[in-house]
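Let us work through a complete example step by step.
Step 1: write down the sequence.
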Amino acid sequence: MSANKNNLFTNLKYDFPAGLVVYLVALPLCLGVALASTGRSDLLFSGIIAGVVGGIVVGLISGSSLGVSGPAAGLVVIVLTALETLGSFEIFLLAVVIAGILQVIAGFLKAGVIGYYFPSAVIKGMLAAIGITLILKEIPHAFGYDADFMGDEAFAQKDGQNTFTELFNAVKYSSTGAIIISAVSLGLLILFDTPFMKRIQLFRFLPGALFVVMIGVVLNLVFSTAFPQWVLSGDHLVQLPVASSASEFFSFFKTPDFSALQKVEVYTVAVTIAIVASLESLLSVEATDKLDPYKRDTPTNRELIAQGIGNITSGLIGGLPITQVIVRSSANIASGGRSKMGTIIHGTILLLSAVFIPKYINYVPLSCLAAILLVVGYKLSKFSLYQGMYKLGREQFVPFIVTVIAILSTDLLKGIAIGMVVAIYFILSKNYKHSYHYKKEEHRDGDVITLLLSEEVTFLNKGSIGLTLDNLPENSTVIIDGSKSIHIDYDVLEIIQDFKEHTAPQRNITVETRGIKGVSSVGGH
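Step 2: predict the structure and record it as tokens.
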């Protein structure tokens, strides 16, 4: 245990500033997702609870070094629908707890292996699409428009707007004060990312994002006295719930309604949350591991267990469902985080700020936080990524670009599903072509054709092998060699046997098989 603690604290000088940046990114996201998910301002704290649990509880249990968990925009529609179906937030919390239990069971049943079957091109497409989504969704906040802070990651939003109409409205209804703050913030973030600034010891420990937030607050205070027409207020500032007493603070926490255990609808919602949250977490794990500069592998079964325990905890104390979230994880990586201490620190700061300084946090303009996310988005979707994928050829580039376009035009899970279909098509196409090696030798007595089967011959190869056998010339000899095959599916054996017994004799073809169990060695005429 002591060795583990040493590992956690070894990189504190890197993890503390990264955790601070993740906190600045996560705070408005927690509030935005809570408002979008519940539609109720009195339940904003449910997003903070989920963020704290995702940071501290999941952070401690998870095997992911850089993944950050919390409430996810991908679950917004599911939560909204569930609240309408169940009729009570307390009954919904019961569904979250049950969903967590199902995730823990799935982890122990080793269902996390699913995470290893997402093609690399699709994962990279997801990262690029999220980067573009961040840029497109944060521009309205940088311009001082759209109070829904990243509540909608999908193209079409529940308020009737979409990504592009929001951009149009951002320009039409822009705020001078917000534009100035976001422009100054972007300039500072670019400056802090230069080698010169990184050499200064102070800025190695305190991230540029912290100074950006402080300057954003100061600028808005200056506006309030010198340029009142530019001042930002209300929806354009962080709106953390402020309790006037300890009893009011504890009233923010809710408990599940266990009397609803007999309701079938609770289990339907729980299964839905468990499946979607697990898929989003596994996708995020794959993406985070690809971004990790140290290329560490996250144990996916342990991740499901950690996410499940996180959801059980969150549901028991009034929080939203949790997943690992790529936006926060990538912010952690981009800020130089090295271990899971970054996510634990972000959760701890989130808790402390909610308890002790919510009043002061509410001075922070969303436009300077938007600038931080714009930089994160740019780092996720650099032009060099597209160049690299294009150089890999169409089998990698097409699924990659289709995933990007699909996510941008629908939402995360639908886009991933479309990208997976395209990637699987290319995999099947390649598998179809490379199930065997074809060799033809011409002899006076007829052609001798050798089909050397590959190591793994599955039902996916049935079509290509069957087509080749059907097109063999009459009066020839064919040798089907499976001596190098480790496994040949029954479907393929059946085709070979049927060809030997029925088709080959009719066309005067001699068939010889080698190393194929379950098929007689010689057949034909």
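Step 3: interpret the result. The first strand starts at residue 69 and ends at 70.
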